[in-house]
Structure formats: C-alpha cells, structure tokens
Predict the 3D structure of the following.
Amino acid sequence: MSIRIITFFLLMTPLLLFAQVLSNNGLFSVDFDNGCNPFEVNITPLDTFGSGAPRFYFYGDGSPETTSSNYTYSSSGTFELISIIGTGATTAKDTTIVNVYDPTQTNFSVEKCNTNGIVVTSEEQVYDSIRVYFTATDSATLALGQSASHHYSSNANQSFQTKGLYNGGRENCTLFQHNIDPVPALTTPTINTASVKESCRDFFVLELEISGYDSLIEYQIEIEQASTSIVFTGKINSAQVVVEDIPYSKTEAQYCVRISARDNCTTSIVQGQSFCVDINGLSATPFSNLYSSYTPSAVFINLDSVRSGSLEIYRKLGEEGTYELRRSVQAAHSDPIGSLAREYFYRIDYVDSCGEVLFSAETNPPLLSSRTLEENNYNISYTDPSSVFSEITSATYELGNATTVGGPVTGSSFDIALDPLNGTRQFLQASVVYQGGPTVLSNRITYKYKPIIHVPRAFTPNGDDLNDTLELFGLPTEIATTKIYTRWGQLIYTSTEPSPGWDGLISGSLAPEGVYMYEVTFEDSDGAKVTQRGTFALIKK
C-alpha cells in the first residue's frame, strides 16, 4: 500500500476563513455556500448602489424576507438565496445556491503498525474528503483512497479525531473521536487447524481455525506446495477463516499455510509460523472426520461443514438393504430412527455446487444382531464400525439394566446370558474407542428376561418327610396358579397357593405312580402373566 500524507497547516486557516463565493451576477458574495447543518451564511454586498440602498434577502427555506445579511439554516437541503437591492425602478436582483448537508459519520479504515503506529485510509463516499487529527499538531486531509500514518509515544489507549469536509465548504461538520490501542510490535495469529476442501471440481477452499488475531492488523495468508502463493490479504475478524479458489494440487504429499502480519506504515512483513498438513485421500473432502454412532433417538453422522453444494445422506436397513435418500445437509447430522435395535448403514454423496457427485463415502456404527440359543441365552454377531479412523483401542459390550455386566468384544460373535437380578427388561449395547478419535456406540438390543421356575423331575409322596410334595422354586411373586394333568390330559389338581405344593393326592387317595404334566401360570416382576409347562414323575417307594 502506498501511503500519501497530506498535512493540514494551521497557517492556512486564515486564508480559508476569508474565502468568498460570488453570486450569479456578482452583486454579493457569501463566505461559504455549503456545509453541515446547522449552517451559517454571511453575505457581503458588492453592488454600486451605495451603503444607503435598501437590501432584502430571501434565504429560500420558507423564512420571511429580512434585511439581515447573516443567517443560520437549521435544516438540510438545497436553497436559493435571493438578494433584492433598491426600490422602485432602480432595483436589482441576484441569486446563489446554498447546499446544507446533514452531518454523517466519517468512513475510513485503520490498521496497526509496529512501534505503536497506525495507518488511516479514507473510504469516504459522502464527504469530498476527511481530516484526521492524530494530535493537536499532527493532522492530515485525505481524499478517497488516501492514507496517513502516525506513531504514538506508547501503547497506552490513544485517540484520534475525524471530520468530514466538502470542497469549498465551511468546516463545521461533526468532529468524531475514535479510540485505539496501539501495539509495540505486530504479532501473527496461531493456526490451530487447517483443511482444504474441493467444493467444486478442481475448485478448492482453504478453511482455518485460528487464535490470537487482531482485527485491526492487516494479514496475508500464504499456501505453499511446489510454489508459494499469497491467497488472502486483509483484516481477519473471526477465528474461522475461509479462503476460496486457492491454488492447490492433490498430488503433493503435503501443504503448508502461514499467516503473516503486514506493517503498512513501512510496507514490511512480520512472518508467521508455517502450519503443515499431510495430504491423504480424504484431505480435500467433507469426510476427513467421518464416523457414525447411535444416540438415544438417532444415528449421529459426523461430517465436515461445506460452504457450497450439499451432503446427500442415504440409509439402508441391514447389509442387504437398498439405500434410500434421507436428507440433504451441509454439516454433521443426526438421523432420526424408529428403533434402536435396527442395524443401519449409510452412504454420503457430496454434491458440489455444479450438481456433480464429487465424493462419496460409506459409514456405519458398530452393529449387533442376536440369535436365541435357549431361554435367556443368546449368541451375538458383531460388526465393526466403518469410519475414517483406522485403529480401534477397545471394543466392549454392556448388558443389564439395574446393574450391568460386560466384557470385551472378541471376534465377530460372543454369547450372553440374561441375569434374573437385572429385571424383566435388559439391554445390550457395544462401544468402540478409536485411537486418537471418538467413542462410538452400537445399536441397542432390548431383551425380555423370561423367569424360569424350577419344578422337580420327580417326587415321592410316601410320608417319610423327604420329597413328599411337588414344590415350585424360583417364583418371582406369590401370584401363581398350578394345574396337574394326567398323561392323557385329564385335569386332576388346581391350586392358587404356590406353597406347600401338591401332595400327590386325588380326592384323598394317592395318585398312581407314573408321569404327569404340570402347567404353572404366574406373574413376572412387571405384572405380565407367564405360563410354564413340563412333566414330572410320581414315584412310590
């Protein structure tokens, strides 16, 4: 940036104060014909009618005629000032135009420099120029695009003032004050993360997350591969920096980014530290941190944000299912699901702003499926999650409700047994921890524990006080109905009292030796009715 400094010398002030603007016919002059509201105008007669001739003035703002040659406008606008000199046949008329403007805030940019310096650049579009007062003895008048610099004696909070000026106008516009904290030395931001995304075919975007920036310092951002290119010059106002349409090669092994500070007082550069990133197959895609995980009501899919184009999310149920479009998004997404037990797989297409599928990737959370071995015992099939993270630190499962048991997931399957102490409803879920990455959760399978009561295989009702009754063991509640049938299905015994059990009598006589069937209907801990059937032997000895 070239710096043009225009110094306003106080010695020029008397010359400006005596500037005069002639009327159309030269019969009078005004000291100024434009300025800010309120605006004072002073008329000097230049006619040859003599000092005794009557003179009347119309100031054009609706006020009545007056003989006063001094007037203050109290509203903005363009006014025709009229002077009428003399009376009767010996009169003359003359006019001039007066422009009165509402004062507005001055427009400029300010940048910090080394050694407590600042640069002010006019961006003024309303005033013809602005005057910058750095101190009582250092000021500059700047037209649009012109700059002036000043160095303060310390980095304590400082101030400067600005005022708008109109060419040839009275310098009565509002004086605005501005505060600034200079810096002894320019510093450069720290780059925390850097990524390059291909937002359209061969169109690349640089995304940075930075800290330690100053919104009043001008920076330049460079990207280096085989050659170095300056991709941005200007101020930074956010920790998230996006630079579009950068030169970039996907075939290079890495790229480096550097942010430097520009000292526009001296046009020197304060170099920043390089931040280098190794390039892999997903470096320029929205999938650099892709993974998926079940949540209590959805499957969360982690995606990078895209500024243009869209991420089309497809889902299928089970490995053999068909992908169906779920949603178009531009960032990470939670896909609502109806059942936490179902196994979902996802494909994400990145459709660029040109409507082309630029990249595609697939992901799935850890997945569990269940096969019954016997009552309350299951074989579990396990599928590893699919993501960009390659190294799994641990894979474990938890089973239970009130309390949980668990263990490592070994291979593609393992067996579980429901614990009666954990109630009727029990849950199974696996979690996977990635090395240097997230922890992801599987689908959650819900089991209903079926209580199994113990009925002896045989009893001997012979009166020796040993195994004389058919007792029921393990009932979850005392609410139960027991029925005994002969081997031909004849009902011979019914009781709603679980204890002491059947004593082997039918109508007061001992039943014949042989095999009998039982049916026990009872309530589980949730109040649901459960029926268990089986056989036993009555032995006489």
